[in-house]
Design goal:
about 80 residues; mainly alpha; about 85% helix
Amino acid sequence: MSMTDAQTAAFQNASGFSAQNSSTLWLSLVLVLALLWCAWVMWTAYRGWAAGSVRFGAFGGSVARVLLTLLVLMFFTLS
C-alpha cells in the first residue's frame, strides 16, 4: 500500500525528510542490530567452545542457525 501525494507531502513537511529515507534508516538500523546480535552469539559460542564447555557440534549448530537467521532477515528486508 503506497501513500497518496497528500500523505507524502505531509510526511515530508512534518519530518523534514522523505519516506524513502525514513525506510532506509529503519531497515539499516534493523540490519545493524541483527549483525551485532550475530557477532555476540558467535563470540559467546566461540568462548564456550574454547573453554571446553560447548562441543564442536553445538558450536557448528549455532553458526548454522545464526547464518540462516541472518539470510532470512536480509531476504525479507532487502527484497
